[in-house]
Amino acid sequence: MRVSVTMVTAVWGEWHIRQLLELNLPTLMADGNLPNLARRHAVSYRIFTRKADMESLAGSPVIEHLRSLMPIELFTLPDDILKNPIAAHHHAWDEATQAAQADDSFVLYLPPDVAWSDQSFAHLADLLAAGRQAIFMTYLRAESSSFTAAMRARRPVEGYALPISGRELVALALDCLHPLMGASLRTSSRLPRHPEMLFWAIPGEGLSLRVLAREMFLFNPRRISLNAASLIGNEIDPSEIQFVSDSDQLFAVSLAELGKDVDWHMKLRAADPVEIGRWWLNYDSPANDMLASHKIRWHFNPATEAEWRQRERAGDLFVRRCGVIREGLRLRAIAQEMGCSKAAQLIAFAAHWGILEHVVRGNGVTTILMPVNAAFTKLPDGFFEHLLTQASGKDLTRFLRAHCIVASRPRALPDNTTGAAATLRKVMAWLRLVGRAKKLPELEDANTIGRPISAGRHTVLLIDRCLGLSR
Amino acid sequence: MNQQDSALVLARGRLHQSNGRYDEAIADFMAVVGLSWAAPLTDWRRQSSVTSEAIEPLIRAVRELEISHIAIAEYLTAMQRPMSGYRGFASVDVALFASQDRTLAVAQAYLRRYAPARRREHLEMMLDIVENEAVGPSQGPTLLAYQHLRPIHARIRLITARQLLAERKYQCARAHLDKALGIAPCYGPAYRLLGEALLGLGRGEAAARSFDCAAAFWNPYWWSIEFSHGMRMRVPGIAVRGHDIFFWNDTFIAVKVSAGQRRLKQLTLTTLRYAHKGYGRWKRRARYRLRRADIKVLFDRIAGAVLRLPGVLWIWRRIRPAAFAARAGAGRLLRRGRRHLKGGLQRIRGVVLNRLQSLFPRRPAGDLKPRRTWRATLSLWLAELEIMWGAQSALRAASLQEMLDMLERVDA
Which of residues A329, A351, A370 is at a domain's end? Predict the structure, then answer.
């Protein structure tokens, strides 16, 4: 399958233009990168720059050489928008995305200060040919002065291409690692306040990585809509998305000066699932869990399976814990808004006391039966207080679990249903889950109150009685 | 070095720092401070107390390097690699990394000297450096004894409470945290520690409420909010038992917002946002961007007004017959009552103004009155209406804690 791809870069200022012309484009001109992609797909390149830099870009021999591979268009960024660099990048991306949407083309966001391993774009070409609608990747950040000095030493005497293999590039980037990346280790004492990625170190081999939220890299704008945080905003079939997870296939290094974003990790802050869960909620996207489930390997030596699997299992557990707490905090907020303060407090207690992660089973859609405050008055004397003690772990887990119906592991609907069960059946039909449902939890005499409420991927139903007490 | 030269060198230092050239930046800052890196510690302590504009940027730059070094050291330890193999600090003098004790000593001296008045962010930075010794008796009196550190007292109390909790002194920790929340009622981390202290004291229900608040006040930008005289705002983040909480006319007001209203508000905001975006595209303005921060207030107010309309209509339908009857039958009576009310209010206003005149000097004749922007006027006007229309059996309290207690007792 041949598709068309619009690459877009926003670049201005001497330093960034130098990085684009001396590092980014030369690494992309390696045989396994742009030449390969341009051979197999219809590629065009849009560069947005300020008026003052237009001449230096247009007259560059590198750009001239690149024109032999693909059509290149240069656009001017208005001066007033350049005051906010992030807004300028988004402006360029928006413009290119709209144009790509009109032309039925994929969009590839290409930052200027990046170096690519050879064969990276050949791998992208494979994935596009296989029908992927969105391809994600993330960059390792390296300290710019030491990294560019090392790359300059590798420049060929003739030609523009600067090929470097994935493993060589990983090794070099790790030698020049930016401190922000060092702070992003799971064991770091000063985790950044935007923990968008977490690392686990494998001595002598590389870094295992989990990405919690990621902006777009290469996608089909006709299939994928973006939300306010520029993340995927719509539900999409996971088989259409690919996160490139092995540095042998694709690897890129982003450059930053020493001290860039250092205020993100100035304070003592260990990796705490509650804080990460709360942060994650702020960068919400239906695709986040799917992205976070990818076990990414950046390695400069062959991977020893047992070593990597051990860290990946630790990553699975930690990411799951953060994800469960994120969903718990989402439900807590909804509970308070609906007036169910007791339920909200129970959830908050369970989240902060490390109980919530044991409550939820499976990763799918869940229906939450949330007791209203009056329901707690019907509990046996002292039971609610007992749930909120340090020794109540198992009871609280059981109590909370009785109020969750995990749709990915549903139980059968009974023939003899109460009013609540009948309502629930309607809700589940509405959710198109009835076909998969097999059994409902014991609803006792509980009745539902009001209409179902949507909470992320989940559905909340208010009920007038607490469940799970008969056990 | 005269003042003009100092300003130029400082500006150059800041530019070097933003470009990651720490050696040059630190050299510039030290030239302004008038110290060499090898100067004895006593000189550094003395210098930290003088009115120098360079001491904060100097310590900031040094601290940023130290933090970067700590991050890389932790990474290299995890990778089991020596520091010598790392190339990233090639442009930095290694002697700068061996100065953590000096930075700590300077930060301690900085916090303990009163003059000159310090800015909050500088105090916070120094507190970050000395974080583990906020209650250390070896360093003299605790930082809480210094009144000029009041802007960061809540943070000092949090650090103190954390240490007390580690020693299982729950009651003392709780006292510190209550005081911290008295200063900064939206301080999320303090609620979290308070929850742990209360749980240690066997007060599970109160602990759960604290954890709930900790989750509500998650945003670090809210933590330092101190509700002072004249502020009018919604207490951010938190909704309790379906109530939104406002700080209005120096009291906290809880306003019940129904689920339908919340849905409608969300829907209105989304519609407005997309309508605005669509309008911008329709106008084909190449530079068009949705400036969220600028128009968010306006959106909120319009949405708030739209949300209140059904309620207003509902109330109007019910009071319309009575209003018409009153107008027809008791017009004269109402006019007289209104006249008396107006006169009374004017008399009160006269008395109060006379008293206040001595406290608030008048603007000198000839000075131009600062103009309020149309956005501020519109936002204040609509905000007032929003509060008035939404107030269904509103609860009022003097403090946020009291308000939370009242909401908790609603069932009882």
Answer: A329
Mutate to test the interface with B, among A91, A151, A258 (most CBs of B within 10 A): A258
Which site among A177, A188, A190, A385 would you substitute to test the B interface, given the most B Cβ atoms closer than 10 Å to its Cβ? A177
pLDDT of residue B316: 82
Pull the structure tokens for residue B223: 């933590």
Domain CATH number, residue A439: 2.30.180
Whole-angstrom Cα distance, residue B13 to residue B312?
59
Q: Show residues of chain A in contact with B204, CB under 8 Å.
A: 349, 385, 387-389
DSSP state of A459: E
Q: Which of A175, A181, A348 sits opposite B87 (nearest CB)?
A: A175
Looking at residue A42, what DSSP letter applies?
Answer: E
End-of-domain residue from the set A107, A131, A155: A131
Which helix (H) or strand (E) is A96 found in, with range?
Answer: helix A85-103
Asked if the model's pLDDT at residue B398 lies above 60, the reply is yes
Q: How far apart are the first and last CA of chain A?
A: 57
H or E stretch covering B243: strand B243-248
Give the mean model confidence (pLDDT) for residues A149-154: 91
Residues A409, A367: Cα–Cα separation, whole Å: 12
- A381 has which bridge partners? none
The span from the CA of A243 to the CA of A246, in Å, is 9
- Amino acid identity, position B240: V
Cα–Cα distance, B310 to B317 (Å, whole number)? 11
Instruction: Round to whole Å and give the CA distance between B21 and B24.
Output: 6
ipTM summary value: 0.87
**Three-state secondary structure call for residue A106:** strand
CB pairs under 8 A between A and B: 185
- Using 50, 70 and 90 to split pLDDT, how confident is the model at B110? confident
What distance in Å separates residue B218's CA from the closest CA in chain A?
7
Taking CB atoms and an 8 Å cutoff, what residues of chain A touch B91?
145-146, 258
Q: Count how many Cα atoms sit within 13 Å of the Cα of residue B282 in the half-sphere of its side chain.
A: 6
Helix (H) or strand (E) holding A86: helix A85-103
Structural domains for chain B: 1-129 (no CATH), 147-226 (1.25.40.10), 227-324+375-412 (no CATH)
**Do A278 and A185 sit in the same domain of this protein?**
yes
pLDDT digits (tens, 9 = 90+) for A169-220: 999 999 999 999 999 999 999 999 999 999 999 999 999 999 999 988 999 9
> Per the CB < 8 Å rule, is A258 touching B20?
yes
Dist CA B144 CA B160 (whole Å): 10
What SS3 class is residue A99?
Answer: helix
DSSP line for A260-302:
TTGGGG-S-B---HHHHHHHHHHT--TTHHHHHT--EEEESS-
- Domain coverage including residue A218: 135-329
pTM for the model = 0.81
State how far the Cα of A36 lies from the Cα of A124, in Å rounded to an integer: 10
Q: Do A123 and A86 sit in the same domain of this protein? A: yes
- What is residue B365's three-state secondary structure? coil
Q: How far apart are CA A303 and CA A297, in angstroms?
A: 9
Residue of A nearest to B198 (CA): A389
Note the pLDDT tens digit of each residue in A186-196: 999 999 999 99
Number of H helices, E strands in chain A: 19, 17
Compute the distance between CA of residue B187 and CA of residue A74 in angstroms, rounded to an integer. Answer: 49
Q: Where are the beta strands (DSSP E) in B217-275?
A: 233-240, 243-248, 251-256
B106 versus A80: which is more confidently predicted? B106
CATH of the domain at A100: 3.40.50
- pLDDT score at A194: 93
* Angle made by CA atoms A189, A195, A197, in degrees to the nearest 5: 105
pLDDT one-digit tens code per residue, A45-72: 999 999 999 988 988 999 999 999 999 9
pLDDT value, residue B393: 52
